[in-house]
Amino acid sequence: MPAQPSLSKSDPPGSASGVVLMLHGGKDRSAQVVDGRSLSWRRCLAMQRAISGPAHAAQAAVWLLRYRYRGWNGGAVPVADARWALDEVRRELGVPVVLLGHSMGGRTAIQVADDPSVVGVVGLAPWFPPDDDVSRLAGRHLLAAHGRRDRITSYDATAAFVARARSVAASAEFKDMGPVGHYLMRRVAEWNRVAGTGSLAMFDAAGGPVEN
Questions:
Q1: Among candidate residues 30, 134, 21, 141, the one with its CA nearest the CA of residue 84
Q2: The domain 6-206: what is its CATH number?
Q3: Domain extents in the chain
Q4: pLDDT tens digits, the chain, 212 residues: what are they?
Q5: Are 136 and 104 in contact (CB under 8 A)?
């Protein structure tokens, strides 16, 4: 049976007024199916648990997408999976979305930021190649956080991407996380704070769904 994307949902009591949709990391190339043992997915699952309390207090849900496959592989599958997840948010809740992506998840978020439900993107140690297009961020908010000891994705490339995005985005902010690496294992509380408060602030800044 072919692999299918799935969602782990953490919903607030009552009605959600927004969804933080989390997109985990992966590898440049891999045909490995993402299962419950995936470290990239499990790191985001731990973050989901950490930020859900404050999110629920603000009436926001936190949903975590599990891609079908671990690899970027040209982008078609993770992007399709993320668009499927956005359709699920729209079908079930019809509320604004902030995309919260780590590593490859940050790149995936940029590719689907043009979805009409998306109001912003938060990227944690994101993979932002120098030639990636910023136009999908038009009218959206962007926050990217990166550590200076990251040897997997580029601190400098992230800073440059944010600078380019300022020409089209509603706002674009770069946060220096200091002398930390890629895997969100040091300064965990600070990564969680940036993820949670950064995402919730975008709902307030947007004031409602994006209209295309």
A1: 21
A2: 3.40.50.1820
A3: 6-206
A4: 578 999 999 999 999 999 999 999 999 999 999 999 899 999 999 999 999 999 999 999 999 999 999 999 999 999 999 999 999 999 999 999 999 999 999 999 999 999 999 999 999 999 999 999 999 999 999 999 999 999 999 999 999 999 999 999 999 999 999 999 999 999 999 999 999 999 999 999 877 444 43
A5: no
Determine the Cα–Cα distance for residues 101 and 105; give it in Å rounded to an integer: 4
DSSP 87-136: HHHHHHT---EEEEEETHHHHHHHHTTTSTTEEEEEEES----TT---GG
- On the 0-12 / 13-18 / 19+ scale of CB atoms within 10 A, 197 is middle
